[in-house]
Write a structure and sequence with these properties.
Length: 420
């Protein structure tokens, strides 16, 4: 991508949020993502993802999709617009405060999906008849709508957001338990691949439907709206809301905890038969007896994860993207504005692209070297490669990693090997 063609505008306002770089309402991620041109706010809790931001979202999506498929999930895409009758069957039409409700022609009423149990359960009923049809796992990556009373922290809590939700269907509680434990490992692997694994903790939480507890995946952050207690011994965490009834760790029985603020980046639930019974979702076992299907659900908010990653990956100059999810791997910059430099930088750009390396080439002629460097730091692409008259004298380029202070000179001939 040529930066001169990029649909992007850098906000030159460098005023920092309050409270030493963190604003309680917006958060540093909102400040950096809007200033660097990753997102644009349409209204409270609703954002447009611009090309840079959309590329990050697609990279997050790619990692999550790969892990869901490896865990046996099959991808579907379910409707956002859902009939009132399905929500009445589960009792959530009047009980779910964040539910967006619409009135169509002929006074027909609908819901905008905040989640999809009311769709996936009757869908599964059309395919599940026998124990031979189980287990089954279906997932989607799709826009959700929630009428949050108080949106905050930029894209961390919004009214419209992209989410991966997976639903598993089982013949026995034992089979659900086994798959549930597997998904814990899958989720921890996802967060590791997203570059935040060292800050994410499996957290015991309330909200279990047919089990006493559910599990959250909480990322340590000073802007976090949750308080968790991390076991000093086994590193399992407990949410503040259930800490009073759990004076010791439920995994290792230790009573030594560290209190931290955290952002929830994922959650999983054992649903049991809560959403299968209202839709008469049943199967016949080996003896021919009819039994209700047992369900589990597993969610990750992609846009929320994107904001959370920025909350813990930045410095005073801008964002520092983990390599796996950065919009581009390389930010190529030419300095000097003469034909020789421009031609050589263009050739490097083309060769890197041929090697399958994603590159943002700052080919702009109306920006000084200082402006280009400042914008590169703000955008936060992992590698900055500089072509100048000085480097070309050695048939080389200057390389700097965004998360490091040192620079090094590398021969152009072996450049692509560094990024592979």
């Amino acid at each position: 991508m040529l930066q001169s063609h990029l649909f992007n505008k850098i906000d030159k306002n460098t005023s920092q949020p309050k409270n030493e770089g963190v604003n309680e309402v917006e958060g540093v991620s909102h400040y950096l993502l809007t200033r660097a041109g990753f997102v644009d706010q349409l209204m409270a809790g609703v954002y447009t993802f611009l090309p840079l931001g959309y590329r990050v979202l697609k990279n997050i999506e790619k990692i999550i999709r790969k892990n869901m498929e490896e865990a046996g999930g099959q991808e579907v895409l379910m409707p956002v617009l859902q009939p009132k009758e399905n929500w009445q069957k589960t009792g959530r039409w009047n009980n779910l405060e964040v539910l967006f409700k619409l009135r169509g022609g002929g006074d027909k009423e609908y819901a905008l999906g905040p989640t999809h149990e009311e769709v996936v359960s009757p869908l599964a009923k059309k395919f599940i008849f026998s124990y031979r049809d189980l287990p089954l796992a279906l997932f989607q990556i799709q826009t959700k709508f929630r009428d949050e009373l108080r949106v905050k922290s930029g894209i961390l809590r919004t009214r419209e957001f992209l989410m991966k939700d997976m639903y598993s269907f089982h013949a026995t509680q034992e089979d659900l338990d086994k798959y549930y434990d597997k998904m814990i490992r899958v989720y921890l692997n996802i967060f590791k691949q997203l570059g935040i694994g060292n800050r994410v903790y499996l957290t015991l939480a309330s909200g279990g439907t047919f089990s006493r507890y559910s599990h959250e995946f909480q990322m340590i952050s000073k802007i976090g709206e949750d308080t968790i207690y991390i076991c000093d011994k086994c590193k399992t965490a407990i949410n503040k809301e259930i800490k009073a009834e759990n004076p010791v760790c439920q995994v290792c029985s230790s009573n030594s905890f560290k209190e931290e603020k955290a952002i929830e980046v994922g959650n999983i639930f054992k649903l049991g038969t809560k959403y299968s019974l209202p839709f008469d979702l049943k199967f016949k076992d080996k003896e021919g007896q009819e039994k209700p299907v047992i369900m589990g659900c597993y969610g990750i908010g992609l846009s929320r994860v994107m904001g959370a990653i920025v909350e813990t990956n930045y410095d005073d100059k801008g964002i520092i993207w983990p390599k796996n999810i950065a919009p581009f791997l390389v930010h190529l910059i030419d300095i000097g504005n003469n034909k020789k430099i421009k031609n050589r930088a263009t050739k490097i750009y083309q060769n890197l692209q041929k090697e399958g390396i994603s590159v943002l080439y700052d080919d702009r002629e109306d920006k000084s070297a200082g402006e280009k460097f400042a914008e590169a730091d703000l955008i936060g692409i992992p590698f900055r490669v500089v072509v100048s008259e000085k480097t070309l004298l050695k048939n080389s380029v200057e390389i700097k990693e965004r998360n490091k202070k040192s620079v090094k000179i590398v021969k152009i001939k072996g450049l692509s090997k560094i990024f592979k």
